[in-house]
Amino acid sequence: MAVIVGASAPQLALDRDTLRNIYLKKIFVDKEGHRLIPVNLPPETPLREAFTQMLVRMPENRLQDYWDRAYFQGVSPPYVLGSQQAVVRFVASTPGAIGYVSICFLTPEVHVALWLPLPAGSGASTDACPESPEH
């Protein structure tokens, strides 16, 4: 899966730990002070499940507890967008946005900040790319 940022965004030096902290909203801005806006797919999608399993390394109930506690400290979870196409459009048009999509959804309006392998048996690899994705 590809972790994407807008093509006009400053190049981010992302590794898994930094990305994890961005998605857990422990990091809010990049080194230049630009706001970071992580976005997720809906919870039931195989790619989101694979992303959460690989990156956050928390079971869903523990992650929900994390966000419940964070919410009372004024921190909301990442925005949820309905499709990979919506993630690409949002990331391409929103400064500081970061998302993840299958390789078949990449467009010239975004660039890959980090590649993440899909976990074996995640189900995301078979559902990730439809015959002809809408862009």
Blueprint of the fold:
Blueprint lengths: L1 E5 L9 H8 L13 E4 L5 H11 L3 H12 L7 E2 L3 H10 L3 E5 L8 E6 L8 H4 L8
Parallel strand pairs: 2-3, 2-4
Antiparallel strand pairs: 1-4, 1-5
Instruction: State the order of secondary-structure elements, H for helix, E for strand.
Output: EHEHHEHEEH
Radius of gyration: 14 Å
Distance between the termini: 17 Å
Task: Describe the largest sheet.
Answer: 5 strands, mixed
Strand order of the largest sheet: 3-2-4-1-5
Sum up the overall morphology in one term: globular
- Our count of helices gives 5
Mean pLDDT: 87
What tags apply to this protein structure?
135 residues, alpha/beta, five-stranded mixed beta sheet, 33% helix, globular
Descriptive notes:
The protein has 5 helices and 5 strands. The longest helix has 12 residues.
In short:
This protein is α/β, with parallel strands linked by helices and 135 residues long. It has helices at residues 16-23, 46-56, 60-71, 84-93, 124-127; strands at 2-6, 37-40, 79-80, 97-101, 110-115. The protein contains five helices and five strands, in the order E-H-E-H-H-E-H-E-E-H.
